[in-house]
Amino acid sequence: MTAIRSKRGSRFTAARVLACSALALVLPATRTLAVGPPETDHLIHSLQVRVRMFPQDPASYDGLGAAYIQKGRETGDAAYYELAKQALSKSLELDSDDPAAASATTHMALVFMAEHRFEEALAWAENALALGSGDMSPWAIVVDALTDMGEYDKALAYCSRLDVPADPLDPRRRLDYERDSRLSYLKFIAGDTKQAIELMRAAAGVAITSRMPRENIAWSEYQLGEEYYKLGDLKNAEASYQAALTAYPGYYRALAGLAAVRESQQRFPEAIDLYRRAIAVVPYPIYVAALGDIELKVGRPEDVKREFDLVEFIGRLSEINKVLYNRELALFYADHDIKLDEALTLARKELEVRRDIYTWDTLAWALYKNGRTAEARDAMNKALRPGTTDPQLFFHAGMIYARLGESDRARDYLDRALTINPHFHVADAEVAERTVGELRKRQTAEERPFEVGKVESRNQ
Amino acid sequence: MQRRYAIVLALCLSAPAARGQAAKPTPADLKITWAEKSIQAAPGKYQGYNQLALGLVRKARESSNPAYIAQAEEAVNKSLALDPGNFAAMKIQVTILLDRQEYAPALEQARALNRQAPDDVAVWGYIAEAAIGLGDYDAAEKAAQWMLDLRPGNAPGLIEGAALRRLYGDLDGARDFLNQAYQQTPPNEVEDAAWLLTEMADLELRSGRLDGAEKLLAEAESVFPGYYRTLEGLARVRMARHEFGEAAELLTRRNQSFPTLESEYALAVALTEAGRTSEAAALYTRFESEARGRMESADNSNRELILYYVDQAHRPDEALRVARLEAIRRHDVLTLDALAWALYANAQYAEAETQMNRALAVGIQDGELFYHAAQIASKLGLGAQAAQYFRQARDRGALPQEQNSAEEMRAGVESAAATPASSK
Q1: What is the CATH number of the domain that holds B42?
Q2: CATH number of the domain located at residue range(s) A345-444 in this protein
Q3: B154 Cβ under 8 Å from any chain A Cβ
Q4: ipTM of the predicted assembly exceeds 0.90
Q5: In which band, very low, low, confident or very high, does the pLDDT at A308 lie, cut at 50, 70 and 90?
Q6: Are B120 and B101 in contact (CB under 8 A)?
Q7: Which of helix, strand or coil describes residue B132?
Q8: Taking the model in full, what pTM does it have?
Q9: Beta carbons of A1 and A14 less than 8 angstroms apart
Q10: Lowest mean pLDDT, pick from A57-71, A153-167, A262-276, B306-320
Q11: A148 CA to chain B: closest CA distance, Å?
């Protein structure tokens, strides 16, 4: 209830919510748009008809833009973001300077987030807020953009803006889901895994009880699964991924998550099948690379070549893909000791727009693979600074310190990676084991520099 | 000038604000630059001119330089020449009228726009703003409530609502609304944030919470350094603390760029209180000359001029003439108070009481108004009423030069009220 006369005799008691479609469309924030694929196609078609009928209606163009964003999310086809941008630009051309324009402005921010243009996404989200519509959900995009830009303290501070409204009678949508899911990720980055999981469970609970779209429920369960997985809690990770698949059958992220669990459980045929199913929905290079790694492990070289070729093909398919998949390709090249110069170039390029811990980690790994170990250590320190407990990061750190001859520190990191999840990666976990063994042996033997390439290659 | 309506008007849109530039352009500068580029790219499109006009309105508020308003008007005229029916340009026309305090034509135009687009929140905001300016608080409340009902929590609605709550004497409620608006303000909108902080600081000041006011003003200064509204707010705090010299210094700084008649008058008062009477006298002379020049226009400083004639120049007849002139235009609480004060100075106590009661009936809790009401009640022999008003004046932070006499008078009235009738 928001009445002017708050404490005196009020003639205006309950707010009359004349909800308009633009407001409803702005509600789905970064990860909250969702209907199943056929519904999205149908929605796009009906909105295309609508904009032809009402070419001066900004809300129709905004709706169409939002539907294209959804389609982009469902298919992984970045061309839909360009279509979304065109529709949203038209909406903003018709109406851009009052609270009603906040919805299209917010959706524009989402497009830039999807395209990994974080500075622009941040600016658009700020513009949406500046329009003063009363919708606080653009703060979630501000937090997301800052997170990807590695500005974790600021991101954490702005999470508090998602707290309002406190009044249970306030007709504005509560933003607990947006707040808790973002806080969870930030806590995870900071190494507070217990609270991260609690928050993500709360977010998933909100998604279910508030009857959010199926994909939202699936995404939150998937995200919870990711956090469990990175902590090595395969049982809970599997349960979460399964819950995501129950909420949204065929959800590609959950299929890939479950594939990773199977990989850790050494159940490779199931892992291969799950990755293939995920790739059939959205062929993300990271899934294809993971599939290739498993196929390599189980001895299917002809399949491996096909998968690895596909990784590069997808990464280079379009201009936008070259932006979206810089980090994935850099890591892929570094992991497989191919095109190491390009791996470094791509990692540096990614760092220009994305300065989060995972980009620092990718840069560190590319530097390490290029033999620039001291620089790799500096980049790795930046990745580890917030306190994240991710076995993949610990593995990279361990390998870097091993080559630097800092055996104790190297062993510590590698032990931590293996303690969290002894099978954190189908190939890297074995490299970690071998390296720890070598380091232990050396502890009793004469101190000598760590021999590059002896144990650190995946192909032993 | 309130200029509440401008807080979100120029905050559009398709211009992702450039970040991290060396010279630190203000939000308005960024919007103007972007709009100029849009015009260069598509000179035949009216949208660019609308954006430019909004940027210039915004710049006027950032700087208190009225020249930008004239430029904004030029831009909006170009927009209308390209497309005479474009609604956005007509909205900007209303904002320009509001900036010039031309409330009656602004209200008329806003109502016409409202008939075209009854769900446009911003247009309801113009109606609320104009109605507040004219003193039609019922109409303003209705418009502001529509804003909040149409789009719960929207910042312009909260800001208009805060203005009304303040007028109704609900200072905490006003603060709550402003804080909600502040929570929406993104980090790049530094002037918006500072504007809201100065408004909240003023509420703290009027609630007698000087430390709170100072803290908020310090925050405003860190967010948007050198903002004239922050300097004005800090000066008011210093005045309330009886630190008149510092207040004068702050106002001198504030008046180094684009002083308003109100800020010049405030400085003159501070100088008077600081004992720098010759400097004050020179300023009063200039103020009077300039204020008289604008007496007939809507964008005047007639309230300050009336107070000057009553409190400083001791020309009650001229004060009343100006007050009656202004009261024809508008009936807001401050105009009614000024009229009452001028009537009091002319010994027309009964009518003064009538006008003062009209002002106070709205619910406003303002130390200066209570002080005036106390003086009037005192002259009418309403001892208990006068004592009550003096207490309220003291609690609500009456102006410093009046505060001492307020205390004296309160003591006098209370002592008179306590004296047995037989001994009077």
Answers
A1: 1.25.40
A2: 1.25.40.10
A3: yes
A4: no
A5: confident
A6: no
A7: helix
A8: 0.81
A9: yes
A10: A153-167
A11: 16
